[in-house]
Amino acid sequence: MSDFAATKAMFHLPEGVIYLDGNSLGPLPKAAGARMERAMRDEWGEMLITGWNKAGWMAQPAELGDRIARLIGAEPGHVMLGDTLSIKVYQALAAALEMRPERRVILSDSGNFPSDLYMAEGLIGALDRGYELRVVAPEEVADAINPDVAVTLLTEVDYRTGRMHDMAALTARAHDAGALTIWDLAHSAGAVPVDLAGVDADFAVGCTYKFLNGGPGAPAFIYVAPRYADHARPALSGWLGHAAPFDFEQVYRAGEGLARMRVGTPPVLAMAALDSALDIWDGVDMKALRTRAQTLSERFIASVEDSCPMLELASPRDPEARGSQVSFRFAQGYAAMQACIAQGVIGDFRAPDIMRFGITPLYIDAGDIDRAAAVIARVMQDRLWDDPAYQARSAVT
Fold it and tell me: Is 209 known as a binding-site position?
């Protein structure tokens, strides 16, 4: 049984703030500062370069990958940490395309995060072999999977609305058509139960700064199914993915298993912060988390809809069909969200009209939900958003 009162006490949450944006950036674990200080003072400071061996820095991408593996239903030894999510998308997509050389279609949907689509476009241009990025509506993905498709590139939970794809069904559909699958877990890892091994997924990628609370710029991860780990070709053949990086050979030889998916130098300080965040997850059951998130989400939707008829629910009505976020549509959504933030309720905005709220039971409880709903009601009913101060767009929305 997960103790969510205990996990809430493990986070630094500013006084007077209700934080409903953990789907974009998780809050600071209280232990992260001391863990990073230890990495800086005792490891970097005292060990200097010997920290790569003495402090185990070089092994951390695999070790932290195994800790994440438990949360996404992956086999031990098949999740590797490092680099950014866009880089991991590029790696997975390049490897998958090479495994289906006779096919030329990458299938995605219009609810996918744009960066995934950008990376696909860039890879298509670099390869210059007639590949096509085919983008359909989310509800049309299943019917669009045909023998032309080499790989599906899908985000399980829509970043705007929280709508969820059926990972098991779409993976099976792709395999029946001879296609491979890449699942982006940016809004799934730490939010909903994931069973990569159980659904027979081929590749998956994700970030650690959202629901996993690893901090701004925290490293991404990649999953490669065991059947491909020893021969998936890493398109980005970085030094640390070499079979023997300290032999300094002039020609690249891919490392064994998932080690080949390493690219650049591990971000040691960022990994220290993530390490402390994952300590919190050690006592969390994902099914209990999911149940709690659904309960809180239903409470939030009911309260907001009761007091704010001008807001239109953009997320699926069925709690089983959405991830751990609730989104509403409002024509002046950006200004309304800025007004909410000024009143101490932090969510975010996604163009053109989405007000987005993350429901994260690790540190959000029913009292927070009720107080947040009351603030939103005041902002909307009193038209606090109709203030020129809230109209000016900031660089990050």
Answer: yes
